[in-house]
UniProtKB/TrEMBL annotation:
The gene is malQ. Its EC number is 2.4.1.25. It catalyses: Transfers a segment of a (1->4)-alpha-D-glucan to a new position in an acceptor, which may be glucose or a (1->4)-alpha-D-glucan. Keywords: Carbohydrate metabolism, Glycosyltransferase, Transferase. This is 4-alpha-glucanotransferase. It comes from Candidatus Nitrosacidococcus tergens.
Length: 480
């Protein structure tokens, strides 16, 4: 974010695509951009856009590069001049409509040319992804490490046979990525034209059951059968007393460093194409990470291992010139992590819900903020501000109100106002807080797998005058 893109105080909203009323890249997404612009906002932060698995977590995707086909707006697709589909675009017909669109596109020379160009541009990941997705279907969505050995180990001769036998299905998966990227980049362009920059989210680790691990097992902590030897997680912290065992494979950093971090250069290239700014989740893992032996079911028995973060970010900076990145520096942060963050002038994060523990030196307290950071009332892993506040004792609530110096006692707006007044250059507010929602609006509870990632709002929840209220608050805090 030191590249001149955003060199002023500004504000934004955190809302994932699946939290829009229609939960796709269609009309509601464009309407939300209009809402942001009318409110004086400059930022729209979303969660990862990749194809999700059974638990719907956008942090456990099937690919580090692909978009989620379920986010494709069928209505926008049906309105394309080359398709002009007149029937129902109900999501129940998603597979049928996408398949028909592919067949129609094959008859249009211009679309064919654009599709071929897209395939060539993304060749370093696209075919692997399409083959992987096809094989997942063939094997009833069994993870790749439970496939027959010759597929698990990517036997070249057998893969050629698969490509010949399932050519249409493989091309269909490629085509869906073509449509996704078209729709997403069109939406991003619309946002940019309206003064809205997109903050995307990139997990530091990727899922075990994803194409990138299957295609490049040498980069990950696997045995010869594709099984994990160690996994990622975090030790006990404010989110979880037992720590968190994420279960993701860890990186073989020595092999990645040996080839100049090409895997990371390609991965970041996709992120920079999709987003204006990338929030890197679990940034501290680039300095050192919590390694848990795969045999252990909890995160309690892990240990810290040093990572080559300085070498990696030096390589990325050398390749891309500027690094429009926000470092998610939450959890157990050491001086070494702070040094790595500051060496590359990356904004960190300040979470207001973490501020009020009675310690006057707490870095999350507004009085202790610095300019080069992004302040949040809460993240997708927190309860809503109102839900969080209502869970506190009356004594703790009074302490917070006393610190905020607001006699109105109006949550969540008191906390939002505190963030707006902060010296921090950026503030991002979850949409749930703007809508004054309680815990019913929570997006995710870390360490749990059921009921998460399902929240979405409806336009009736937007109170009359809300845009004007937000615009006034941003004007008064010099964030327009």
């Amino acid at each position: 974010m030191n590249d001149g893109t955003l060199q002023k105080r500004c504000a934004g909203v955190l809302l994932h695509i699946t939290s829009l009323p229609n939960r796709d890249l269609g009309a509601d997404a464009y309407r939300f951009v209009d809402f942001l612009a009318q409110s004086g906002m400059s930022l729209w932060q979303i969660l990862p856009l990749g194809p999700t698995q059974g638990n719907l977590s956008p942090y456990q995707c099937l690919s580090a590069h692909a978009g989620n086909p379920k986010l494709i707006s069928l209505q926008n697709l049906a309105n394309e001049p080359w398709f002009n589909f007149k029937q129902s675009t109900s999501s129940r017909n998603r597979r049928k409509i996408l398949k028909l669109a592919y067949q129609v596109a094959n008859q249009d020379k211009k679309i064919q040319q654009n599709f071929l160009s897209f395939c060539n541009e993304h060749a370093f990941w696209l075919e692997d992804y399409a083959i992987f997705s096809t094989l997942l279907e063939i094997h009833g969505n069994k993870p790749w490490f439970k496939w027959p050995k010759r597929l698990r180990n990517r036997d070249i001769k057998y893969l050629k046979e698969i490509k010949l036998e399932f050519t249409d299905r493989i091309n269909q998966f490629c085509f869906e990525q073509f449509i996704f990227f078209q729709q997403w980049l069109k939406l991003k362009a619309y946002a940019n034209q309206n003064g809205i920059f997109i903050i995307g989210d990139m997990p530091i680790f990727i899922a075990h059951n994803c194409v990138d691990v299957w295609a490049h097992p040498e980069y990950f902590t696997l045995d010869q059968d594709g099984q994990l030897t160690s996994v990622a997680g975090v030790p006990p912290d404010s989110f979880s007393k037992m720590g968190q065992r994420w279960g993701n494979p860890l990186y073989c950093w020595d092999k990645m460093e040996a080839d100049g971090f090409q895997w990371w250069i390609q991965r970041m290239g996709t992120q920079f194409k999709l987003y204006d700014i990338v929030r890197v989740d679990h940034f501290r893992g680039f300095e050192s990470y919590w390694e848990i032996p795969a045999a252990y079911r909890t995160a309690m028995k892990g240990h810290w291992v040093t990572a080559p973060g300085e070498a990696l970010f030096t390589a990325l900076k050398s390749y891309y010139g500027t690094l429009p990145i926000i470092a998610e520096d939450l959890g157990y942060i050491t001086p070494e992590v702070e040094t790595l963050r500051d060496q590359f002038y990356l904004p960190g994060m300040r979470i207001l819900q973490f501020a009020f523990d009675g310690n006057p030196n707490n870095s999350y307290l507004p009085a202790n903020h610095i300019e080069n950071c992004a302040v949040y009332t809460g993240t997708h892993d927190n309860d809503t501000t109102l839900g969080w506040f209502n869970s506190l004792s009356k004594k703790k609530q009074q302490t917070i109100y006393k610190y905020l110096g607001d006699s109105k006692k109006s949550m969540p707006w008191d906390l939002i106002q505190s963030g707006l007044n902060s010296i921090a250059q950026y503030i991002v507010i979850p949409m749930q807080d703007i809508l004054e929602l309680g815990s019913e609006g929570r997006m995710n509870v870390p360490g749990t797998i059921r009921g998460n990632w399902r929240w979405y709002f409806n336009w009736q929840q937007i109170k009359s005058g809300l845009q004007e209220k937000l615009y006034g608050l941003l004007a008064n805090s010099n964030r327009l």
